[in-house]
């Protein structure tokens, strides 16, 4: 079980470039706008380690930004989508 003390105030957004470095897509397959002003400075990173989008507070600022980070860290999710659901 993961406790609140173990989690940051950052949130998974559902974007990834895993398997295709530099080409970011949302979980539904739509492309992520890399020109968005919401990306943190120098992000997204083209890296072999940082493949997931995270919404987190910028250091020393009162605003949140999108960061590209390691997918194996523990964070909250903005929403959860069951991609295997049928309608």
Kindly describe this structure.
The protein has no helices and 5 strands. By secondary structure, the protein is mainly β. β1 (11-16) and β2 form a beta hairpin. Pfam families: Lectin_C. This is C-type lectin domain-containing protein.
State the main characteristics.
mainly beta, single chain, five-stranded mixed sheet, 87 residues, globular
Short characterization:
This is C-type lectin domain-containing protein. By secondary structure, this protein is mainly beta. It contains no helices and 5 strands.
Q: Helicity, in percent?
A: under 10%
Beta content comes to: 25-35%
Q: What number is the mean pLDDT? A: 83
**Biggest sheet features:** 5 strands, mixed
Number of helices: 0
Which series of helices and strands comes N to C?
EEEEE
Query: How many beta-strand runs?
Result: 5
What are the segments in which pLDDT stays under 50 over at least 5 consecutive residues? 1-6
InterPro entries: C-type_lectin-like, C-type_lectin-like/link_sf, CTDL_fold
Organism: Petrolisthes cinctipes (Flat porcelain crab)
Pfam family, one: Lectin_C
Protein name: C-type lectin domain-containing protein
Write the SSE topology.
Layout lengths: L10 E6 L8 E2 L25 E6 L6 E6 L6 E2 L10
Parallel strand pairs: 1-5
Antiparallel strand pairs: 1-2, 1-3, 3-4
């Amino acid at each position: 079980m993961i406790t609140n003390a173990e989690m940051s105030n950052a949130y998974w957004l559902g974007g990834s470039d895993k398997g295709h470095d530099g080409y970011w897509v949302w979980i539904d397959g739509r492309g992520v706008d890399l020109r968005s002003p919401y990306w943190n400075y120098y992000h997204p990173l083209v890296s072999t380690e940082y493949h997931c989008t995270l919404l987190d507070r910028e250091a020393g600022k009162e605003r949140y930004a999108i960061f590209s980070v390691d997918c194996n860290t523990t964070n909250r999710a903005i929403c959860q989508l069951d991609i295997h659901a049928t309608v």
